[in-house]
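Tip: read the tokens left to right.
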């Protein structure tokens, strides 16, 4: 079976691609000037709006709710803007079983190597 990239390798690749989309000075200025405002909530909203505008090809038409609660949660989507993700070893999302459309999960079922407990975590994470 072909093994995919680990979560860390995937994250590093995504960061490298995203950084390549912007001039280096812009990222430094954004982090220095905008990120500190309102504990990062302004920067988070700006990123969310830019994502909504630039990623419609992937997500379809979308908008960003401008109402942000004091704990950084958005009322519209369930995404937590301005809040760091939990550590990988405690992240509940990574403990979810693979979807049936996952090629790795299907292949493990075909080979008979996927038990009910084996599917609790994606082998690529």
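Filled-in amino acids:
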């Amino acid at each position: 079976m072909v093994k995919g990239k680990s979560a860390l390798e995937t994250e590093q690749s995504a960061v490298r691609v995203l950084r390549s989309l912007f001039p280096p000075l812009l990222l430094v200025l954004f982090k220095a000037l905008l990120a500190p405002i309102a504990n990062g909530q302004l920067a988070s909203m700006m990123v969310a709006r830019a994502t909504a505008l630039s990623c419609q090809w992937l997500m379809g038409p979308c908008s960003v709710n401008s109402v942000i609660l004091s704990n950084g949660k958005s009322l519209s989507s369930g995404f937590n803007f301005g809040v760091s993700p939990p550590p990988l070893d405690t992240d509940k999302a990574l403990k979810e079983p693979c979807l049936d459309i996952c090629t790795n999960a299907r292949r493990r079922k075909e080979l008979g190597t996927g038990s009910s407990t084996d599917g609790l975590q994606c082998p690529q994470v």
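Residues 7 and 14 are 11 Å apart (CA to CA). Residues 23-84 form one domain.
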